[in-house]
Design brief:
mainly alpha; globular; single chain
Amino acid sequence: MPAREMRMEMFVRALLRRDFSRAKGHMEKLMKIAGNDEWGRGYSRAVEGIINALKDNDADSLVVQLISSNDRERAEELLKNYSKLAGQDFRDNYERGYYTAWTEFLKAYLSQKTLT
């Protein structure tokens, strides 16, 4: 498993345990791996948004709704859609990085044993 995907797994596990200090450490490493180009900035924005929404328990955010409802079908549907968006050539690098982060987050989320 590539380093970024492994780090995303650790990030998701920390978030599911609501261990935000550990999740923040994983987030910082993810952002460093992603880099500071357009793609990396998009990736970082998505990861920051995920942790902030969960930390604030923003009931209107997609990630809080997803984790609260534990809806595997919806997560799989989102994974399919975001994977498609990340692979579209007409999207700029920022958008591809953003949707790649969401794709990796959803894959890691769906791989957690508590969901099966």
